[in-house]
């Protein structure tokens, strides 16, 4: 669905990304992990059009495309939910869901139709918000996250980018959100998930892509890779172990 090849991005004297490759298939969740400063958020901004790459190729469904601004990404079918959620607290759930996509008739907002669609979406995704006219400022962290995710789905995207979606959630709210992501994957969406929570990653991701110091540092199948292997790739411990092995002892790990 989405492939990145040789993506590089520089900010002044800082090389944030260097020749990064990544691909996401329809109907799978890929976790993007790495230490602080590894380049995860920069890569998300490249894909979403917020900070275009300096060099490299982005392919969408097998063809090269140019993503220079957020509108370009949205037009392709890429939706992003940032960690700060970017919602309007003074608006209710309906207002936030249709922000920028308002439905009108003869120049007048069709509040009845928007409310109907909002209720249908909440029901379909099993989001526990009984009143869609509730101001989002009064919602819990989990409910706000669910509304932000639902807003991203209003444009019927094919790829969903999630930046630390469970960082501020409790155990029960996290469980519900992960169930929601699984539901979207089962519907055929490609999901790229940034997370520091290895429990969430092991629970929901199909593959894990590791960035270290702005470069690829491993791609793992969740079902066949231990948590320790992934963490070693994140911290660079695996690289150091390889660098310090004695010649002639290949395969003889302690």
UniProtKB/TrEMBL annotation:
GO MF term set: ATP binding; ATP hydrolysis activity
Boundaries of every ABC transporter domain copy: 2-238
Any matching Pfam family: ABC_tran
The keyword Nucleotide-binding is annotated on this UniProt entry: yes
CDD domains according to UniProt: ABC_Carb_Monos_I
Keywords on record: ATP-binding, Nucleotide-binding
InterPro entries hit by this protein: AAA+_ATPase, ABC_carbohydrate_import_ATPase, ABC_transporter-like_ATP-bd, P-loop_NTPase
Keyword ATP-binding: yes
Protein name: Sugar ABC transporter ATP-binding protein
Source organism of this protein record: Streptomyces sporangiiformans
